Amino acid sequence: MIAAQELHTDFQFSQEAESQWSSDTDFEDPDGKDAKTAKGMAAKKGKKAPGDKAKGGGARKAPGAGRVNGHHQENGMENMTLFEVVKMGKSATQSVVDDWIEAYKQDRDVALLDLINFFIQCSGCKGAVSGEMFRNMQNSEIIRKMTEEFDEDSGDYPLTMSGPQWKKFRISFCDFIAVLVRQCQYSIIYDEYMMDTIISLLTGLSDSQVRAFRHTSTLGAMKLMTALVNVALNLSINMDNTQRQYEAERNKVIAKRANDRLELLLQKRKELQENQDEIENMMNAIFKGVFVHRYRDSIAEIRAICIEEIGMWMKLYSDAFLNDSYLKYVGWTMHDKQGEVRLKCVSALQGLFYSRELGARLELFTSRFKDRIVSMTLDKEYDVAVQAIKLLTLVLQSSDEVLTAEDCESVYHLVYSAHRPIAVSAGEFLFKKLFSHRGPEEEGLPRRGRQSLNGGLIKTTVFFFLESELHEHGAYLVDSLWECGSELLKDWETMISLLLDEPAAGEEALTDGQETALVEIMLCAIRQACECHPPVGRSTGKRVLTAKEKKTQLDDRTRITEMFAVALPLLLGKYCVDIDKVTNLLQIPKYFDLDIYTTGRLEKHLDALLRQIWEVQDKHTDIEVLEACSTTYHYLSNEEFTIFNRVNIARSQLLDELVDKFNRLLEDFLQEGEEPDEDDAYQVLSTLKKISAFHNAHDLSKWDLFTSIYRLLNTGLQNGDMPEQIVIHSLQCTHYIILWHLAKVSDGSSIKGDMVTLRKQMRAFCLMCQRYLNGINNAVKEQAFTILCDLLLIFSHQIMSSGREQLEPLVFMPDSSLQADLLNFILDQVFIDQDDDNNSTDGQQDDEASKIEALHKRRNLLAAYCKLITFNVVEMNTGADVFKQYMRYYNDYGDIIKETMSKTRQIDKIQCAKTLVLSLQTLFNDMLSELGFNVDRSTSAFCGIKELARRFSLTFGLDQVKTREAIAMLHKDGIEFAFKEPSPQGPGSPPLNLSFLDVLSEFSSKLLRQDKRTVHTYLERFMTVQMALQREDCWLPLISYRNSLQARGDDDTMSVLSGISSRGSTRSKKAKPATASKRKYPEAEESSCSSSDAVWMNREQNAQTPVTMHSPVMMHSPVMMHSPVMMHSPHLTSTVLRDPKKMRPEDSYTGAYSMPTEQLPHQPVPLQQQQPHHHHQAAMDYNTQVTWMLTQRQQAEAHQQQERVSMQYAKMRNHMQQAIRRGSGLMEDDEEPIVEDVMMSSEDRLEDINEGMDFDTMDIDLPASKNRRERTELKPDYFDPSSIMDDSVLNVSMF
Description:
Helix content is about 55%, strand content about 0%.
């Protein structure tokens, strides 16, 4: 229970209570102006209210009426309280307040009691303040009483509850307070009773430790303060008016002066002044009693309320609040840790800077906190950063001199932000700063053209773009300025004029870099106008355009086509040799409306454009320019438009010329006996580049290029001296030939023999790529690898999907040699260390950029190979060499490898698990080859393997049922690997790979309980008795692995009383003894394992027949037993209570090396812990026990052993349940008594509940947030017998 602290205010405002007020909450000012208020407060206690005789905690009954506040009363109690009316929100707030005021006039104590309970109930409190409590109890006592009425099970209260009703409640709550003050502002608030009581209540509640009280009362107090500020503002206006009237009347001549009117005005001014003083006292009490403490409350929402309201006060009543005494709170809170509070600070300041008059009074504040506001533009909360930029824009409007150049530059670069709201706000700031000021010399300039006003602004934009040194982000800059400067950015006529027209006399011409930047900005503006969505990286989701936006889009596209259809050929002609400009200019036609070429009679301009494109491709060999030419031809060659024939003829002529030239050059280049010179190689390469670029977008099948290019590639393999670029582009061009051929076959437009031809060409080309993949040139190998991955994916079994079964002859699956070559390429080219050579002191950014580019290329190569794994193109186990790099290259490729593991698990869980364990085995073998046979498990290599196994385990998720078979198969493969190789040191030493069991134990937590027993049994197939008895450090992996399989898994067979039991326990408040007949025993549970588990469990790993041992424990023995042993978890043989802290060292081992549960001879057995005679067994030494175990196996059948153990177990359980019911002992030495079967009578239901949990029993006596692992941290008295039993049963023996 949260106790409310002692508060310094009370509802009574008694004379004694006045001395309790601190300086922060004192109503009285130093001049004693509040004497009347204090007197009213003090007088309250002595009054006998007419409604005192009304009983029932705030019930009120108006004299002679059956209705109060417009609500029906029954037996003196209302059907609906103020809280319920406000919560419903059905009644108008005005009428609710009017009803309350009417009730207040009739009986103010009863009405005030209702208002007090309204605030209490709005806080979520279940209790109510009665009339007797109101009269006789102090404030702190009432709040403490109300605190006890809270519902501790829920932390919600009306202001924090979700749902539309509660959102409306918050609004209604605030409206109620505002309307209440507004309706009472002329009389009731000055009666020295109502406001004093409300302020006292809210001040006391705001100081409570209960969040609901503090939050609700702070909101109420702040809204009350805002309402009082409005009242004070009205009083101030009335006082000014009265003063003016008084001055005007007094300045009249004596004959016309009305003395009685002067007296009236003087009296009115005095009353207004008194009211003003009283309102100021109230505001002072609220500010010092609530705001000063709560603006730094621990709850961010409460702090936000305070800052939001003080912003309203300064805006509404600036004469009183807009000064440094109040502004400092906003300035300090701008450093708040919570973004919500910082946002309220910025919003409050925005309200002040909107007014130039108020902004001028903030100079001192701005100079003090300007740096903080500027730094908030980089706030981690995007909303805060956006509003901070908008605030700086308002500051900029109020005064140009406030922000320095450095302050502005810190905002300028945000136009390139990936977060669009921030970029748009920064764009608005930039536009206001650079483009909104017009000098007198700019008046009268033409509207369009080079000499226009926009011409200068466009130049300014270009200069800014170049100075920012982020040339590739032109689209981001245009998008940032689009909302505020779209008219400027759409002035393409001026941009064309700046590019084509000669500069006027005295005008400075644009440089080459400036022209390149202008072309880029022009292209980005065209794209923004035609596509109407942000650039890549800023998209906030697909937005549906409105009808107005669609019309604007069509109009802009028409204007672009009409303008650039004429200008584009001229621009291409002027900048034909400039790569950057031409590349950007050639992208403009894809935004054209091609119908306008015909409707606007612009065919001659189309011909000019086609000629310029031919000129560009003829002069350039740059791949970007050639691809731009190819894309332009592709867009113009649209059969839906009438210009298609004109464009198709020009394109065919161009391609005929290129192919003829290539064939001619190729014959000369491949002539036998002649060494090709560099000029011939350059001609072949340039022509091949152009053909490859055009083949990307156009079908060149009719020219039959496969034979000639394949011949070129084959010659390169034979001679080994083919230039690198020729091979790369030949491979790329052949790849395009295969894909275009496949497209024709797929759509049915091919002839009969085309599929056979395609199959031969594809397989021959794949073989060619494989041969190049084994070459020595890295660039060629990367190209061959990329093309191979694409072709293998395209021609995999996926090609027959979507009803294309006729393509089955084209399916091509890689053989083992090709899979090995692909994997070796990945290992050699992708998983390499970064170059750590950072000796350059000049900060070479090119070096860093090249490293990033190289990493990006390697990521693409790895992703291409991982696609082959996820689509079953290559064997899944080849992914083991990729998965093993997960930790080492986590920063570079972790996301790709993790996604690949996820996809492979969706395809085949078991095979994925096998691949994961294979990757761990590969790393383990690598470690052995490096470090030798003696594995040190503390080395970084082994720890790395173990950490990788832990990461792999986490990828299986929490649903153990879905991954059951996969995890079991993983353990099976791991066990077989651990015992696969014998020890090189001879018999008696651990197997070579035994340490791998330590790695495998990371997956034990993913096993179900029954599967743990199955895996444990399978493990024992590989073990000998000698292995089970070893305790040397070299055998610790086996010990720990067995323990991980037994922990929390063998609850039915391990002793429920043994202190060495690794299981947890529960204690039921209502113990129901479970009958032994409903209990399942270990053998029955083991037989219930899945059939899939039984398949691999039954595989014989050794020629010898395993010996099943039903001995309760496994002891040390000097006898060497070479046959594998199957050992069940130890059965229950003793009910002796032992203190785990006093066990022998041997007793501390659990699982495979558990010592017998019987008390050893040299340890005295306490009286309370002595076992019944029929349960006692004599202690035996190690040799005798081993001999006994073997004899036991030979003399007894398994069924008899099972019955004996079952009876023994049932009797023990019955004894224990009876003892617990009697309350005996409760194992005071143990931290937790163990009672297992009190929860359920069915083992099946218990297992079903626990299958998805890490522990095996339910915690039914602790809070839900406490699990088994937290029990050791609880206070001892949770399990203290004296806390739950009386003295009469504490000394009763358990048995």
